[in-house]
Amino acid sequence: MNPSLARLIQVIPPPAERREKDWAEVEQTLGLPLPADYKELIHTYGGSNWDDYLYLLEPGCPNDNYDLLEWEDQQTEALEGLWEFEKKPEELEEVGTRVVPWATTDNGECLYWLVRPDVDPAEWTVMVNEARGERWEHHHTTATKFLTDALSGDLRSGILSSRFPLSVHEFRQLKPV
């Protein structure tokens, strides 16, 4: 188990229900491998809501609104259209670089992996984009470490809500609507 997930489990006990995924099929659909820490995070917590604010996207999520595969399609299309009119963040200027969403918020912010050519998924870092705006943040950390550090208050974002995290954490696994 990766250290960030072990730390997260100490803070927020996972639900009893574990969700198995056919990761080979998911990765084939996406056209790229996913980080092992994320797969372990999904196996442990599944698609979920953290502190009534941040939604962890899950491939095949029981709540269709938070399906990683759907979000990836929608965000790819939306960003391609956006960058016809707005400048891409400098982190995305390298040919072959892209972002893939892994979380969102109830305000509409989106958290992405920064996927660079020839960079192992274990080394993908996190980009945060404000809702309906041009601001981006780049955090040199994995998705699981980002979530763990954000919940502990060790990581602060100028884009995410100042009310996140809550002083007493809330967690719920997403269910069908």
Structure description:
This protein has 177 residues and is an alpha+beta fold. It has one domain (3-170). It has helices at residues 3-11, 23-30, 36-45, 68-82, 143-152, and strands at residues 48-50, 54-56, 98-105, 110-115, 125-129, 136-139, 171-173. It has a 7-stranded antiparallel β-sheet, sandwiched between helices. α1 runs parallel beside α5 (143-152). It is globular and about 45 Å long. 32% of the residues are buried.
Oligomer: single chain
Strand order of the largest sheet: 6-5-4-3-2-1-7
| Approximate helicity band | 25-40%
Structural class: alpha+beta
Series of H and E elements: HHHEEHEEEEHE
**How many structural domains?**
1
The gross shape turns out to be: globular
Average pLDDT rating: 94
Distance N to C terminus: 31 Å
Features:
single chain, 177 residues, 7-stranded antiparallel sheet, alpha+beta, 7 strands
Could you provide a short overview of the structure?
The protein has 177 residues and is α+β, with helices and mostly antiparallel strands.
Produce the secondary structure layout.
Elements: H1 3-11, H2 23-30, H3 36-45, E1 48-50, E2 54-56, H4 68-82, E3 98-105, E4 110-115, E5 125-129, E6 136-139, H5 143-152, E7 171-173
Antiparallel strand pairs: 1-2, 1-7, 2-3, 3-4, 4-5, 5-6
